[in-house]
Amino acid sequence: MREDLLHYIWKYRKLQVSNVYTSTNEPIRIMEVGAHNLLAGPDFFNAKIVIGEQLWAGTVEIHVKSSDWYAHHHEQDPNYNNVILHVVWEDDVNVYRKDNTIIPTLVLKNYISQEVLDTYLELFQQNGGKFINCGHAIENVSQLIWRNWLERLYFERLENKWLLVSHLLLESKNDWEKVFFIMLAKGFGLKINGDAFYEIAKQCDFSMIRKIQNDTLRLESAFFGLAGFLSQDIQGDDYYNSLKKEFEFLSTKFLISESQVQKPQFFRLRPSNFPTIRLSQLANLYFVQRNIFSKILAAKSIEELYRLFAVSASPYWDRHYTFGKESGSSPKKLSKKFMDLLIINTVLPIKIGYSKHFGEDIGEEIIQIMSGVKAENNSVISNFKSLKVSFPSALESQAVLQLYNDYCVKNKCLQCVVGHGLLNGKA
C-alpha cells in the first residue's frame, strides 16, 4: 500500500460514506475533507468531521500505519497538535495527544471498494519493464484534458528553470541584464560547456560588457581571455595576436584575468559546437543586438526571436574552428535548432520570470511562441511517440519531459491526469 493512494481516496471521497466508524467504534460523518497540503505539516487543512455527536474542525493526517506518526516524530511537532482524525490503512498502535487523549483513527481498508484497489494495483502492475505505468491507456485520454494538462506541465517546467535565475537575481541585486547575459552564456555552452561558460560569465563584470559592446574584437578578447584561450604563442596569426593584445589591455583597465574554473572542452563536441565558435557568436550577438534584453522582452513571436539571434561568428571563424588551424570555408551562423534551445532554456524562462516579477501575465504569449518551436527529439520523446502521443511543437515535448521526470519516474501517477482518469474509469 502507498500513502499517495490513501491521499487520493480521502481527497476524492473514494471511500464508503455511510456507516463509517473510528477504530474505537464511534460513528464518523465527513462534512469537509479539507484542503490538500503539499508542503510540510498535516496532510489536509480545514477539515470538518462529526465524530460521535461532536463537530470537529482542524487538520487530518494520513499514514499507511498508525505507528508512522511516531516514526515521523509528529508527537514532537506542534503543527500536529490540532489533528482531529488520523486516517490510516493499518491501525497498529494508539496515537495520543499531549493531554494523553487518543486521536480518533479511521482505518481506510475497511471502507474501500475492491474495484478501486484493483484499478490501482493494475496501474502499477502494468509496468513490468515497460516505459511508463499507464502506457496501455495514455492514448485514450481526452484531448481537451490532455492539452490542458500539458500546458500546466510546461509552466511547471518553466518554474523549475526559473530557480537558478531567481538565485542570480538575488546575487546581482536585480540586475536583469547581467542575469540574462549569464544565463545566455550558459545556453551557448550547451550541456558540455554550459557550466564553464556560466562561471566565465559570472566572473565577467557586466559593466565592462556595456562599455566595450561597440567593439567586436574587444568583446571576443574578453570572452576568449577569460576562457583561457589566449595564453599560447601563435606566430603569424594576426587575429589571435590582436585578441591577445586587447585582452592584456582589458586586464589592466578592468582588472580581469583568466578564469580559474575548468576551461571549456572540445572533446566529444561537433566542430560547430566548439567553444571558440560559440564564444565568438555570443560576442557578435552582443555587438549586433545592443540592448538585447529589452528586445527579448519586447519580442512577441518566434519569428522576432529568430531575427534577434540571426548572427554569425566573426569572419576569421569562416575558415577556422580553433586558433591557428585553417579549415574549409563555411560561415558559422547560429542554426535554427540552436536558436530553439536558447529560446526554450533561456529566453522564455527569463521572459515569464520578468513578467511575474512585475505582476504581468504573458502565459498566452509564451504558449504562442512555444507552439512555433519544433519539438525536440530524444529517447524519452521517442518512447512517448511509440505510445501514440503526438508532438506538434516544443510545448508538448517540454511538457512531456516534465511529466516523465517529475511524475512517471517517481510513480506520482495519482497526481497526473492520466492516473487520476484511470482510477475514475475515464481513461
UniProtKB/TrEMBL annotation:
InterPro entries: DUF2851
Organism annotation: Arenibacter antarcticus
Protein name: DUF2851 family protein
